[in-house]
Design goal:
The chain is mostly helical. Helices cover 71% and strands 0% of the residues.
Length: 178
């Protein structure tokens, strides 16, 4: 027989697993975009490795924002341009520096600049930056809505006016009964 706390902990773990899976799906598409654009630029232009990588990373960041906002974190609070987008850009730039710092170190620090080496270190950089991005996006950018226990608290204006919120005809959550 489980206690309410165990069920609650199990639900949190399940919720985190769903979030990681959705983040991974969007991130996987972002990795394909990132590596695809990177290799396209490298094979069709004379741009240096890190410059090509930065351009590819920016294209992937734009792709990922759309996926995170409208798929992974669609049920999270929407603060739009006032908070969400500037934070997303700031944390994405930090991730860009992490990702391309790995590539820069491998290319210019160790001289590993062949096609295979640049793709391997680009991939390692993406993986390293992904850990940071997952933490920062879920903690600061796409903040979770209040738990049902605080259902008596007023709903944020972003929820009430969101397409999935009260304006769309959805009812406000009922207060928890004791």
């Amino acid at each position: 027989m489980s206690t309410p706390q165990q069920g609650s902990a199990l639900e949190r773990v399940r919720g985190l697993a769903r979030e990681v899976a959705k983040f991974g799906a969007v991130g996987g598409i972002g990795v394909l975009v990132n590596l695809g654009v990177f290799n396209l630029i490298r094979h069709t232009t004379d741009l240096q490795v890190v410059r090509a990588s930065v351009i590819a990373t920016v294209v992937a960041i734009i792709t990922n924002y759309l996926g995170f906002r409208y798929f992974t974190y669609r049920d999270r609070a929407r603060t739009g341009g006032s908070r969400e987008l500037p934070l997303f850009v700031a944390f994405s730039v930090i991730g860009l520096v992490i990702e391309n710092g790995v590539l820069y170190t491998a290319t210019y620090g160790f001289g590993w600049d062949g096609p295979l080496a640049t793709n391997v270190f680009k991939f390692i950089g993406i993986g390293t930056a992904t850990v940071f991005r997952f933490w920062s996006y879920r903690t600061w950018v796409f903040k979770a809505l209040p738990e049902p226990e605080s259902a008596g608290a007023p709903l944020p204006a972003s929820v009430v006016s969101s397409p999935r919120g009260l304006a769309a005809g959805n009812r406000a959550p009922e207060p928890a009964r004791k």
